[in-house]
Design goal:
The complex is a heterodimer. Chain A is mostly helical. Chain A has eight helices and no strands. Chain B is an all-alpha fold. The chains are: A mainly alpha, B mainly alpha.
Chain lengths: 214, 244
Amino acid sequence: MELAQPRLAAGPSESEDGVAGAEEQDLAAVYSANATRFRRLAARALRGYGLSHLAEDVVSEAVLAVWNHPPEVVDSWAALIIRKIRLCAIDRGRKAKVERADLSGPPSSLGDDGDSQVWHQSRLDAGRDIAGGEYHDAEDPAELVERDHQVDAVRAAIARLSSPDREIVTRIKLGEETGKAVAIDLGITPGRVSQILKRAMHTLEHDTELKEVR
Amino acid sequence: VNGHDNDELVDRLLEMEPGEERDELLTRLPSAVRIEIEPLLTVGDLAWESQFVAPPVDQDPIAAMLGLVPDPAYRLDPGVLARARKARRMTVGDLADQLTRRGWSTRGKDVFGWESSGATLPPATVQAIAELLDVTTERLTGQASPGTSPSPFTSTQPAPQSTQAATAAAARVTPRFQAVAARYAALVGLKLSEASDALVGRMLATAHRGAPPDQEQMLSSIEALVEALERRADQATDSSPRDP
């Protein structure tokens, strides 16, 4: 009985985080080590389209695509999944834009207008389609690890904030409520909310000692 | 742009999500203010991302599909594991290193623990161990029927009662089964382990209706079952009354 795990044919050495390319790595192991990172990447890629709630779906779609159609040669499962997530997010965003514009037909029916060109360029930037071909590492999964460390540091720093600061940061930066709405709800002025938010953000920056991230 | 305008602009920026509009607004600030505010925007973006985390492994359909959900029915047999490792002339550290190279972060003391008291590991990890030690996963987990494997290692756990049970047991640890089980669990609101048990029962029931099926037939039968249930659920949703 075999699980027939897709595995790497060959590649460079592995990092402790399990995201760099590796010799003979298992796809399942790579997913296990990066499940949260993939979701954060998907959420970030979808945010500009107002679709971050679809992050879970996009990760599923990307991993399933790689699982069902693994390339014959791959340097890094993580890089491959990262690229697929970006492509899936672009496609979802594009589809949503079309639906919002109340246009009928698939994206290709829009013609070669500027928007279509942006979409095609975005896909090109995100990489070649991986299905059935060879894929060589053009992504940098190490950046994902670095950013994930920063996110975790900020998350921990939020937990250390005073209760009023934490509430305002959580509601405005995570819940995406407006400062005005939070002010009304808390019975304070919008100016006071801005003050607290700014103070809290300075505290977070100081506590996390951010390095340069994209 | 005076100081008051700057303050208002900063307040707006701190509430905005990343994108062209925010970038454009940022350029309106004097460089000294911009340098101060940019790290705060980065912190805000990171804070926003922090709310996205993977679901617990037993609630993650992708994890189930990849064989990452530990299954108590497939507990490592400590004696078989130790004998297989020694037969390959590997130390516990060697096995841990090789697993780590495949992406399964493992220490020598983990392997020692598995060999001392057994362990319930994800099926995908068991598969990796089996491949490294050149034994079957059935043998490692005490699921092999007597005489079905040329392996020289003897299980210390009782073997399944029948060939059908062994076939169903082998089917259960495949990614295909895990994927169907995840769909079934979501459909009927069961835990993954409960859904898996139910589907194994279904596979064994299939075996009693005629000639003993092979693994492919067993998996096809439960896939057909779950697809039918999903179709029925979809139809029920479509025909349910909607709010005006």
